[in-house]
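Aggregate trends can hide what the representation actually does to any particular protein. This step matters because it turns folding into a mapping between discrete strings. For completeness, the protein is quoted in full, as a sequence line and a line of structure tokens:
=====
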Amino acid sequence: MTPPPARRRRTGVPERSYPRRGSVRRAQMITTYGVGSLVAVDNESFIVAGTDSWNISDAPTIFEHRLARVLGVKSFRLPPASDDTSKDGVHVRRFPLWHSCPKCDSLQHVRRFNSPAGKNECGECEEDLVPSRFVMACGKGHIDDFPYWKWAHRKNRQEGETGLCGGEMRLRTTGKTASLRSILISCTCGVPEVSMEGAFTGTALSDLKVFCSGKRPWLKDAPTERCPERPRTLQRGSSVAWQPIVRTALSIPPWSDEHFTKLATDFEALRELHEAGNRAGIEIYLKAITVREKYEFSVDKVMALLEAENHEDGGAEGEVAPDSAYIRLRKQEYERLIAGQPEKETGREDQFVCEHPLSSAAVLSPYGVTGPMLVKRLREVRALKAFSRVDTPETRTDVHEAALSLAELDWLPAMEVQGEGVFLRLDEERLDDWARSVAVAARADRMRNNHTRMTRERAQDPDSVPDSPASPRMILLHTLAHALINEWSLDGGYPAASLRERLYASDAMAGILICTATSDSAGSLGGLVAQGEPDRLRGSLDAALDRARWCSADPLCVESASSGVGGINMAACHACVLLPETSCEHNNGLLDRALLIGTPEDPSIGFFSDVLRY
């Protein structure tokens, strides 16, 4: 292949310097390009600055009382959105700082290239600089430039220790292969040229006596921390270079009531009046708000809302572990989805409408499906609590949560999704009878043991690793949700990435909610709710289960003893039940379609085997 010609600058009239800009959607500031992540803009690379540097003066406030209580904040804010005239926006800082020139192969700190003002190019070659492809990071979230000088001089112990060779670094690629062996680092001091091969091994940097620098470049003026963690080499665009830790909650009554949405900013003042027993003061306060909001408030509804707040305070006492608080949120949602809330009992701005289907659900009895609900109006808040590097929440339960800011803020960045969904449950008595089968328990135990082993191998303290959530009930509900999402993406016209699962799986819960994951054109126009009508849901179950019987990777897929990361899946692959990662709560882990439909050798282990014909 002939290489492209070198870029030449025009002579004569000097070029006008236009500012280089990059933009991301607000939703991406929570899931993809949040605080501490690396963003590529044109030929440059930046790290997103902490929330204490954001200008949120024009950013809308999001209120989700239940989630805010668990996360210890008062409210949430939408990430700022800026245009050409506003001063609002998210700050970024250049990172990594080591760059290379594709023409002269010089490799050094960006400040040493003598770039013209406002440009990121080599002062001698007038070529755009290339940010380093490699960085080093640790499990505590620290990140720094890759130590190229020590890597190139690793075979020259004496000079490597003193750091005074006086040479200049060079980086070039041979182009023979796409491997690290083709990336060569050299120094003009005369040391032998070395490749990047081996830089990604777990002990590559520690063998060079390179320790974690404790730097947090996303936080302005952050002090360097002492860190005992072993640093690792990462690709700048690697998924493990930044993993968001996101917490979510649904808006349910009474917090989804339009009374609360209009009183959210004044709720603390009303709460203080209620604690003082001043009902007359509450009535006067509401009259003042009525003038501002042009909305007639019901004193009785507001009093009931304040009483519910007191009940929440009492229920929260004794909650120590954050995990137990999240489980409590799920139980509240599960109970509300079962109880429902008809549209005729809600206001125009209420954020939760959940109704029983118009037709009888008796047609679903052979499938063990009970209580389908049509969630016609739904609001989900997703808040970015922190982030991690190197280790991910799916591979380690004790993953370190890197802070989003130096200052203590009373808000977190979040986004809200308003859409619709379908909620259904499985017969718990039938579930328990099925789960007692020796063959079913053996498959679940194998997956649970693999999951526990993987988390203990990657945990700092193996003894503190909690039990794996893998149980016959959880695996069945999870796999069923994937099968239905795949079916509705084909039959209902939804992209699979526009649907999202929400599992309610424990000893006291056995339900799944499949809802729209985005508010765009694939969002809330009633198409998903229509899939929850019993007759259509029965057809979807038939088609989904029939599709799950065969996989293009069979017999390898269905006979697999383990698959996926750490072997935490069994009969599950991209050809059958795996989904886009944004649609799955467990990163495509703990799945086994054999528990849905059985295996050719033992169909009885499938929960739905009675309605299938082989």
